Amino acid sequence: MKTDAFALRHIGPRENDLQHMLKTIGVDSIEQLVYETLPNDIRLKAPLALDPAMTEYEFANHIQALGNENKMFKTYIGLGYNQAIVPAVIQRNVFENPGWYTAYTPYQAEIAQGRLEAILNFQTMVIELTGMEIANASLLDEGTAAAEAMALLFDVRTRDQKKNNTNKFFVSEEILPQTLSVLQTRSTPIGVELVVGNHENFDFSADYFGAMLQYPGKFGQVYDYADFIAKAASNEIKVAVAADILSLTKLMPPGEMGAAVVLGTTQRFGIPLGYGGPHAAYFATKEEYKRSMPGRIIGVTVDTNGNRALRMALQTREQHIKRDKATSNICTAQVLLSVMAGMYAVYHGPKGLQYIADKVHASAATLANALEKLGFQQSNTAFFDTIVVKADAQKIRAIAEQNEVNFYYIDANTVSISLNETTSIADLNAIVGVFASANNTQTTTIEALTETNHFPENLSRTSSFLQHDVFNKYHSETALMRYIKMLERKDLALNHSMISLGSCTMKLNAAAEMLPLSNPQWNNIHPFVPLDQAQGYQEMLTKLEQQLNVITGFAGTTLQPNSGAQGEYAGLMVIRAYHQSRGDHHRNIALIPSSAHGTNPASAAMAGMKVIVTKTLENGNIDVDDLREKAILHKDNLSCLMVTYPSTHGVFESAIKEITQLIHENGGQVYMDGANMNAQVGLTNPATIGADVCHLNLHKTFAIPHGGGGPGVGPICVAPQLVPFLPTNPVIATGGENAITAISAAPWGSALVCLISYGYISMLGADGLKEATEYAILNANYIKEKLSGHYDTLYSGEMGRAAHEMILECRPFKQKGIEVTDIAKRLMDYGFHAPTVSFPVAGTLMIEPTESENLEELDRFCDAMISIRKEIEVSTLEDKNNVLKNAPHTLAMLTNDVWDFPYTREQAAFPLEYIAENKFWPTVRRADDAYGDRNLVCSCAPIEAYMES
User: Fold this and answer.
1) Cα(878)–Cα(867) distance, rounded to whole angstroms?
2) How many CA atoms lie within 13 Å of 60's alpha carbon, on the beta-carbon side?
3) How far out from the chain centre does Cα 553 lie?
4) Closest alpha carbon to 751 in 918, 911, 526
5) Exposed, middle or buried by CB within 10 Å (0-12, 13-18, 19+), for 41?
6) CA 303 → CA 110, 311, 589, 923, distances in Å?
7) Which residues have a Cβ under 8 Å from the Cβ of 812 and sit 6 or more positions away?
């Protein structure tokens, strides 16, 4: 046994299991299985040209040496990113804990109550700090949250504004530069005209539907926006405010000024800088806009027994239902990071947050006073944490960098300095020393912080916040550790059992890949430091881009999109730019098969494209004749085809090369959705099938953890003709020579977690990556055959094989009174998270086991599914009091003196022998979604206050 081979640890089945699995499937070798699964004309002819695989030990040494190339300067650049202290109790118990980072999006509420409570805390924190009525469960970053705010305000225009096509959106020149760039990207395709200017000179004309302000401004000036918002409201202009969340403990919340949307980032609430991400953005608005609100909302409801339960509310808003009518394609949040930010507020409480804000503000005030004593002019008349100093920027920069200090240089005579929670008196004296040296004057020594407020009294916060118990009782480490553990025990994550979600690829997130994320050399770098201070990052990111180019067969990659949905959008915007560069501005038709992910049509609509849906055949494949007809019909205006490969039905369609050629012949480009790349790596690739661009879910195929619904990374890889259009960033230039504006806020998106995929690829190497794909196909087909005779597989390839996932037919069980949801809930009693429910076909289960699962776990899952099938068989349409309809069964049910069910307690909780060894108890019975939507509560208020009369 080659114990230092990472593939041995990543791939689940052991060598001595292989023959048994192959025999079950009915093949002699993995090679035969792959031959029967993939069309031969798309197989790669040579191994991937990647470096030899590293061992875990070699990778640990390599990544440490690479990290040492990053320079750890004291950084005061600001612009929406500030160094924060990650409380050790949160780092150890959440950030580094697989019980939190390996969980899936909480679609199955009954086994996600802990995570749902943590996110509810986050929403409560946001609502109370912003002074708004409703908040979501986080967005991707401040730039994209601002773009979502613009889209929401466009969507909720008055009837007259829609009738008159009122389309101007005012953006204050105080907005962060990266936010403006994202707004520019998102505005044009949907028909919004951005007007950037000074908010003090705005004319409030009827041509505008909305406006956006920054609070405090990008270089720290605090403005009183109350009059602006009031005047805007009287002219039916709704205002969004991008606000620094820590400042809201001291400044009047925008909600109290009348803002329609408040948004920003929670990064400074205990989340590492990570060279730009991942960070949890926040988004709060008025309850009347709840159905136009992007992202997820966690709501309070009741379970079958009337007890409090949490779940995702108002799911009809989601893009997989609304498709091209959706106002957003957001299908992911930054759950792990929002949990951390919420826990930061729980740990510190209102008084602790005020103490931190007071210290940050006092540091800025003290520094301003000290620099003024040296003869420097500080030009912000009101500020929270950022001061602007008139000085020779070139001279200051040379001395500052010599002393390992970074400021932001606005122009030749202006320096911006943003202070943060980590800033000490010694740091302040070092800053003063830089300016004294530049001025050739005697330095002045700061002994203590100044206590005064440097903003108007009428802007001081007077309202209380975070008065709920949860923010006031876990302030010792022991108390918080136990609270986090209590919540963790309510969640089923990958550290307990297999999560076999089709289309979601819940594979192992190896510890060797995760460890570097805690290293300060990686997680403490500001995204806008000079490139020579981030050489380790630059080498790693460049190498990862090259690895992804090799894997996809493409010529260029951008890592900027920080979710799969963002990657889809980025790919379409690059296609759009390509057509426009050739004068083909009219090419706006996107052909999308009816089986596609819901994010596909939503993304196309956001990119300004018109969606034409093409048919699928009875066997689940694309109807090539219908596609040909529509491609020819729309050939003059065809922009692209969006295709998932292998298909969402878990099949490698043999006509794929014919399909891509057909699109090219009619002037279009081919976008391949990379959701199922787990079945391609090392065997085929997007370039081989004829695609022009694909996005990759690094949080699926390339082992970044789901984190309960985020972080995600969705880079796009493109063919040579699209490379010039890859996106840039206004602060640190990236992308191609004709780059589109920014897709997300940071130059390289969520750079920190790219370390995981870099490690995954580097430790597997070409052979390991191919083997991982083969075992993903092996495990899926093993389950397919084990369940054969108990469940029908809806779609198979031409030789009867599944790709890496399959769809089980469950609709006939309705004759027994059993719905697919009943199977999903019953699986919880067996200790498993349900496969994907009713996607892409209603009333079915889509199963994807991944290569990481061993034979024992696959057998346990199959045994559970077969046992449930037997339970279905004895059910009847008339009998609603059965083991499936009552699932899941909680510990409270089992230990109750009364047992009113026609089956035993053992049948309910321990239907198979293995369960007793490792029993997982759901903590609530079935959550009542309809009740929760009728009585929407998305903060920590007690449920009794909202009960129906």
Assistant:
1) 21
2) 11
3) 26
4) 526
5) exposed
6) 9, 10, 45, 10
7) none
So what's the pLDDT on residue 908?
98
Q: What is the pLDDT of residue 937?
A: 86
As a whole number of angstroms, the distance between CA 414 and CA 391 comes to 6
Q: Specify whether the CB–CB gap between 164 and 204 falls below 8 A.
A: no
Q: What burial class does residue 64 get, using C-beta atoms within 10 Å of its C-beta: 0-12 exposed, 13-18 middle, 19+ buried?
A: middle
Kindly list the distances between the CA atom of residue 102 and the CA atoms of 562, 707, 750, in Å, as whole numbers in the listed order. 18, 5, 18
Confidence (pTM): 0.97
Cβ atoms within 10 Å, residue 581: 13
Amino acid at 662: L
Q: What is the pLDDT of residue 947?
A: 44
Distance of CA 265 to the CA centre of its chain: 14
Separation between Cα atoms, residue 334 and residue 141, nearest integer Å: 9
User: Cβ distance 99 to 488 under 8 Å?
Assistant: yes
Q: Which residues of the chain have pLDDT under 50?
A: 943-949
Of 410, 742, 451, 795, the C-alpha closest to 616 is 795
Helical H segments across 212-253, by residue range: 226-234
Q: Who contacts 430 (Cβ-Cβ below 8 Å, separation ≥6)?
A: 74, 403, 405
Assigned token pair, 809: 């037919």
What letter does residue 92 receive in the DSSP assignment? I
* Spatial distance between the Cα atoms of 278 and 275, rounded to a whole number of angstroms: 9
Residue 274 backbone zone (phi > 0: left; psi -120 to 50: alpha; other: beta)? left
Helix (H) or strand (E) holding 285: strand 281-285
Instruction: Encode pLDDT of 190-225 as tens digits.
Output: 999 999 999 999 999 999 999 999 999 999 999 999
Region for residue 402 given its phi and psi (left: phi exceeds 0; alpha: psi -120 to 50; beta: otherwise): alpha
Residues in the chain, total: 949
φ/ψ of residue 911, rounded to 5: -70, -20
Identify each DSSP E strand in 741-881 by its residue range: 792-793, 806-809, 836-837, 844-847
Structure-token match 């929407």, residue found: 936
Q: How many other C-beta atoms can be found within 10 angstroms of the C-beta atom of residue 899? A: 13
Cα within 13 Å of Cα(498), Cβ side:
28
Q: If we measure between CA atoms, which residue out of 831, 841, 837, 849 comes closest to residue 787?
A: 849
Query: Amino acid letter at 575?
Result: I
Rg (CA), the chain: 28
Question: What amino acid is encoded at 851 in this protein?
Answer: E
- Helix, strand or coil for residue 320? helix
Q: Are 258 and 235 in contact (CB under 8 A)?
A: no
Q: Count of alpha carbons within 13 Å of 730, Cβ hemisphere only?
A: 18
- The β-bridge partners of 208 are 168
Both tokens of 509, joined, read 């997130």
Contact 595, 842 (CB under 8 A): no
What does DSSP assign to residue 590? E
DSSP alpha helix (H) spans, 669-800:
686-689, 751-787
Residue by residue, DSSP assigns 21-37 as HHHHHT-S-HHHHHHHH
pLDDT score at 322: 67
Rounded Cα gap, residues 592 and 361, in angstroms:
52
Upper half-sphere CA count for residue 788 (Cβ side, 13 Å): 15
**What tokens appear for 163 in the block?**
């009738």
DSSP 763: H
The contacts found for 367-374 with CB under 8 angstroms, 24 or more apart, are 367/417, 367/419, 367/428, 367/431, 367/432, 367/446, 368/454, 369/450, 370/428, 370/432, 370/444, 370/446, 371/432, 371/435, 373/444, 374/432, 374/435, 374/436, 374/439, 374/441, 374/443, 374/444
Do the Cβ atoms of 166 and 206 come closer than 8 Å? yes
Provide φ and ψ at 812, rounded to 5°. Answer: -60, -20
Question: Residue 164 contacts by C-beta under 8 Å, 6 or more apart in sequence?
Answer: none
Q: What is the largest CA-CA distance in the chain?
A: 91
Residue with tokens 């007793």: 916
- Which DSSP state fits 103? P
Tokens of 697: 């879910």
